[in-house]
Design brief:
- The two termini are about 15 Å apart.
- Helix 2 (about 25-40) crosses helix 5 and helix 5 (about 75-110) packs antiparallel against helix 6 (about 115-140).
- This protein has helices at about 1-15, 25-40, 45-55, 65, 75-110, 115-140.
- By secondary structure, it is mostly helical.
- The chain folds into two domains: about 1-55; about 75-140.
Length: about 140
């Protein structure tokens, strides 16, 4: 997970080096960068623990029944269908939220009214949190 955060931080820093970005995009990226750096700084132990856990798993993939704590009996076909349906539903929700966030970011670039920019920024934050939650749920199931 740390690599993803580090990659995102580096990407944001490169964007900020571009003198041609709009003031609205600069403010947005600066805020995002600040939040990412704070998160990385305050959650080092959790990030490292997650990295160690990933490395210790050896890449062994688990079956859906393993993830549900049932290693003795495989899921019935009906339960497998429900499980796959839930994953697909989450994937659709992730795609929808990602598109909504992209659209909001594009709108942010053209806004000149500070109040409207703040409203869009708050909406972006809410959508990003919902997207993060959906992605975490998807990761838990996969």
């Amino acid at each position: 997970m740390e690599k993803n955060i580090e990659t995102h931080i580096e990407k944001d820093k490169k964007i900020l080096e571009d003198p041609t970005i709009s003031p609205q995009q600069r403010r947005h990226i600066e805020g995002e960068l600040h939040e990412l750096e704070d998160y990385a700084e305050h959650h080092k132990k959790e990030i490292e623990a997650g990295d160690r856990e990933s490395n210790n798993s050896g890449g062994a993939s688990q079956t859906p029944s393993d993830k549900l704590g049932n290693t003795k009996q495989p899921l019935s076909q009906n339960k497998q269908r429900e499980f796959k349906k839930k994953i697909k539903s989450i994937e659709r929700r992730i795609a929808k939220l990602d598109e909504e966030r992209k659209s909001l970011n594009e709108n942010m670039l053209s806004v000149t009214d500070p109040e409207e920019a703040m409203r869009i920024h708050e909406k972006i934050e809410a959508v990003t949190k919902e997207l993060t939650d959906a992605e975490e749920e998807w990761l838990e199931l996969n």
